[in-house]
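Could someone model calcium ion with this protein?
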Amino acid sequence: MTLSKVSNCRSRQSLVLEKVRADLSNRTKTLRSLGATFKIMDTNGDRKIDKQEFYWGLRDLGCSLSKKEAGILLEVLDTNADGFVNFEEFQVGLRGYPNATRQEVIDRAF
Ligand SMILES: [Ca+2]
Ligand SMILES: [Ca+2]
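Reply:
Sure, complex below.
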């Protein structure tokens, strides 16, 4: 029972992530558009996305998740577990790991 619950939860996480990746695919093609998307979601401009910003930001971008789903996804993306998604976590979550060249571009852009 417990085991199947855990695996259901895991597959739900990846389903939600796949949905968001698909819905945002046009916005994650280039680093520039990904950065713009991040800035749209970061409404208070502190360079990290909290739960509220994440939920409403995704809705604004046409990707409607429930608050619960948005919360699950934020936890998936929040790899350092500080409760926020920073740009690096956002980028890694939606595109995969940055290579060295991309990281340099990010360092210069932010
Ligand atoms: Ca913010
Ligand atoms: Ca984080």
